[in-house]
Amino acid sequence: MNTFGKNFKITTFGESHGKALGVVIDGCQAGMELSDTDIQPILDRRRPGKSPLESGRTEKDRIEILSGIFEGRTTGAPIALLVRNEDVRSEDYEALRSVFRPGHADVTYYEKYGIRDHRGGGRSSGRETVARVAAGAVAMKILKEKGITVTGRIVEVHGKTTPKDIEKEILAAKEAGDSVGGIAEITAKGCPAGLGDPVFGKLDALIAGAMMGIGAVKGVGIGDGFAVAEKFGSENNDQMTSDGFLSNYAGGILGGISSGQDIVVRIAVKPTPSIAKVQQTRDIHGNEVEISVKGRHDPCIVPRIVPVAEAMLALVLTDCLLEQKKYR
Amino acid sequence: MNTFGKNFKITTFGESHGKALGVVIDGCQAGMELSDTDIQPILDRRRPGKSPLESGRTEKDRIEILSGIFEGRTTGAPIALLVRNEDVRSEDYEALRSVFRPGHADVTYYEKYGIRDHRGGGRSSGRETVARVAAGAVAMKILKEKGITVTGRIVEVHGKTTPKDIEKEILAAKEAGDSVGGIAEITAKGCPAGLGDPVFGKLDALIAGAMMGIGAVKGVGIGDGFAVAEKFGSENNDQMTSDGFLSNYAGGILGGISSGQDIVVRIAVKPTPSIAKVQQTRDIHGNEVEISVKGRHDPCIVPRIVPVAEAMLALVLTDCLLEQKKYR
Amino acid sequence: MNTFGKNFKITTFGESHGKALGVVIDGCQAGMELSDTDIQPILDRRRPGKSPLESGRTEKDRIEILSGIFEGRTTGAPIALLVRNEDVRSEDYEALRSVFRPGHADVTYYEKYGIRDHRGGGRSSGRETVARVAAGAVAMKILKEKGITVTGRIVEVHGKTTPKDIEKEILAAKEAGDSVGGIAEITAKGCPAGLGDPVFGKLDALIAGAMMGIGAVKGVGIGDGFAVAEKFGSENNDQMTSDGFLSNYAGGILGGISSGQDIVVRIAVKPTPSIAKVQQTRDIHGNEVEISVKGRHDPCIVPRIVPVAEAMLALVLTDCLLEQKKYR
Amino acid sequence: MNTFGKNFKITTFGESHGKALGVVIDGCQAGMELSDTDIQPILDRRRPGKSPLESGRTEKDRIEILSGIFEGRTTGAPIALLVRNEDVRSEDYEALRSVFRPGHADVTYYEKYGIRDHRGGGRSSGRETVARVAAGAVAMKILKEKGITVTGRIVEVHGKTTPKDIEKEILAAKEAGDSVGGIAEITAKGCPAGLGDPVFGKLDALIAGAMMGIGAVKGVGIGDGFAVAEKFGSENNDQMTSDGFLSNYAGGILGGISSGQDIVVRIAVKPTPSIAKVQQTRDIHGNEVEISVKGRHDPCIVPRIVPVAEAMLALVLTDCLLEQKKYR
């Protein structure tokens, strides 16, 4: 439930307004140099409060390595990483103590657990991704040593595709007390052929699960994704010559196994559900109420989801690389 | 790798042109009536050779229950199901012994395993899904007892949306030695709120992994899926009254947990890669060759993927129902 | 529950008096030669009816390989092995339909599942181990290629330690309508140092779980086992020179990780619970009854447990070898 | 590797001389009251430095709950527990930087990881069990609510069985620069029938794995354990009347499933390997050296292993209780 991966396993914990967020990484090889400086810059990319497009919460997100390192190198023991919460304003959420915010996990968590941690979404908050990004930074270091890079980019926000239009669109939504969705694309370069396992451990299945497991993601496509629905087989097959493939419509994965081409993943990100605009909802007693969500929220979560999605792809690939070593 | 699920676990085996396909189901409750007649009709829906739109391979797909049943009821012991292959024409594939078919797993399996089972795709064949559908039939029986139904439908084939247009489109592609892709939608009705686990066991993450793990699926969307990218938050949030939700853009899942609304999943299915049209490719020695794939293939796999996707959704939901019982 | 192992995973199914017993092996490397002749001789060692010391049930235990092999070699796909039951005399058990045999799983299975498969113990029968031994044969083939051998021997039966005394003791117990327990020892030679994982995946923890998971085993010791309780540290530590260890009291495992010395495991096997002697018991309705267990039973199960324990140790070691490859 | 359990899952981290030890508990039900005061007293029982029989290291072992609790109750989110190390004297170990201590994991860790954390054994230290005991305290709270108690006792130390003799034996060994082994027994009372799963998830298999996974444990017996080897079936079977069982030789487990009787487990604990007596060994360069292990060590680890073994049994039972709920 809170563990991801099979060989390079991460277990995360922590809530938006709790004491801390953290992750235990199990399965990292011994002997690798690792320090805060490998992780902090990547965490900083995810950090809120860097621009007017983002939430105003100002967390320093200082990483502390609690275990697994001796004299600057990994020992094979589990690596525990901790980030303390600092800028917590739970009072912002007091009004929400018993109200379900539309588009949020409030109502489903309550149905599931019969309890509510209303402070900033608790465990369902996007702040949980701090732990993923910290673990992803370690995965990326491993990948880099093997010549694999993972990078993401914003493809589209609310129908706009250029940086300038996107910024305008986000600010307009913010102004209007609203929010907007979009699409991001994550690409892994340098990945060897052979990763992924038939039939339930397919690389694309693992990636899809990893991406859809990020809050706000509602769609995942590999390569041409949903566009395949309008293609002929003769247009969609990646033909081959002795030099390799002539195209990469498949997004680097055939039959669930990496082909050696770039792995290309797109994700659809819904508009942030926290909006100032008045919405209808109900409280835990069944009363109908109107809600206008205050607090410090991103009017568009796409930019901040990019480093999270990169982390998840890095984690999947690292896990598959270890898996693959078993059978060689 | 060949096991799916955590509580209601299935382990499948078998190849397209091997002796048999089968599945071991582990975690089915004791005391449930179960016989061939619960499984055979559902397997028959997946069976090829029922119309000119489908592969001409004529398998009876007779199910044999090998274990786990005593006097007509499940005992809690693992249930092994077996389907023997009958209409195997491996000679059709002799010409492909060393050639990689474009769009197929041939090349990636070879990279991974250093060996090729060229007969009908071996383990990477769609025929592997017989075992999933058989297991799914058992899952559906469990779901039915809880008032949950899972049904799928074809949404679109190559841009067409009406049955008549779709049939015409498929036959035209077949005529042209080509194939077409499309979109299917699977819906679960009657699902209780509370299924799915934060943060990596989200219901949508499990569904996305399950769907993308079906061969030929290249995209998965929950609820509005990729359409969220062009929406405002105020358009996308499902507002609530005391009677429940006013809409279901979320596809029945909020924060990774079922809301009690219909669960709605769409999958994008690529055009069948096996086409008669001549394509460029290479063989295992690196020589460039031209290929025209013969054999008995579906010109569009969307109709036959529907029962498989239903089975996978049924398996995910059954697994989550058991998971949920632990914490009640 | 019915799956063992993490990398070299086996999933077993089948009951004593059902149609068949079987196992699916997932995680066997591709390209290894494998045929019936690798498995049948090892199954034959476990087979009943070979001497007057054993159960009179005469099963041929013919192995059928259903999948995973192509042209005589493993493909990386799951290997399914099947053994059909033949000499089933369920009528022997009719009298036991509602009576709980002392020392058997009858009463606990009934408590757990609320259902009884009274025919020969169903899934709780020792016959279930056919599937383990078949899978173990494949593991042993892998180990052999790496120079590792696994062999077991009877150490003691009812206090006797020489073959002649043991045989006399078993026949005397049989004559008296009784049964006897004993101790077996399993040794793995040629195992490399470094297998096993701190802290919960310790090699000795895995072995202990594997051995105690064999029906009738009530105790497991590694190296000196329970004898350590009466030793000084200075007597128990295996001192080292530059040539290696001066002793092997530890049984080849230190801190849960193999040391490169022989791995030595002892198991305590209880007397067969099925005895002709009259015993007090109750039936499923709570009535008190006397029971004298008829049927074809081994008066001492130690000899027949040896191949099963060998198989389990082979499975653990194969699994750990694959695990270890990930981090090298 | 560092995760234990399937439903009530714990993941531990930390080293003897690192910054901290900790555990993440995943799968604890929501709504249970939980605070430091449930955990601290149980941790204190394990704490060193309480008597002359124990190591002189004086750790306060203050527990900090980092996540998973809101307003005094569990939320269903993972519970992270942290204990900072305080009394670390790594300089004691400087002399051991390159020497392998006999009976310790030093040599096998080095073989496995190619790296050495020589400070107090690093991850292989008994100090790692702080995290297990903390998690076990949470498990015990859950068990208590169901009327289940887990208690351990020292059965024997170096052949002595009375407290006074045992104390004398331990002090004598300490005086002599030596150490002694012994046997402990852990009993669970109030456990319902039906826990444990055939065939590889047998309750006794899980217990054996859990116990053998504690450093220094070399043998595990259930009920009569190794004594079964000298018994007749007629002496060993627990006969039944309508009131229940007439004896409990089986230790509360039949066919791997709990019978409702007390669960009785014995473990054999080796003499502490760290002794002042001079021993032969080698260093990482292959040189032969003599060693006399200084530092603050327990001359007999049996008393301090009792709370750890209780914790492990509590964890296994809690896990099985959750597992069992799935099928009811």
Describe the protein.
The structure is a homotetramer. Chain A is an alpha+beta fold and about 325 residues long. Chain A has seven helices and 17 strands. In chain A, the strands form six sheets. In chain A, strands 1-2-3-7-4 form a five-stranded antiparallel β-sheet, with helices on one face. In chain A, strands 8-9-15-10 form a four-stranded antiparallel β-sheet. In chain A, strands 5-6 form a two-stranded antiparallel sheet. Chains A and B meet through strand 1, helix 2, helix 5, strand 10 and helix 6 of A and strand 1, helix 2, helix 5, strand 10 and helix 6 of B.
Are there runs of chain A of 5+ residues with pLDDT below 50, and where?
none
Largest sheet of chain A: 5 strands, antiparallel
Oligomeric state: homotetramer
Structural class of chain A: alpha+beta
| DSSP summary: helix tally of chain A | 7
Rounded to an integer in angstroms, the radius of gyration calculated over CA atoms of chain A is 21 Å
- What proportion of the residues of chain A form beta strands (DSSP E)? 15-25%
Largest Cβ-defined interface = C-D, 103 and 104 residues
Number of distinct beta strands of chain A: 17
Strand and helix order of chain A: EEEHEEEEHHEHEHEHEEEEEEEH
Inertia-based shape of chain A = globular
**Fraction of residues of chain A in helices?**
25-40%
- Terminal-residue CA separation of chain A: 30 Å
How do the strands line up in the largest sheet of chain A?
1-2-3-7-4
If you average the pLDDT of chain A, what whole number results? Answer: 94
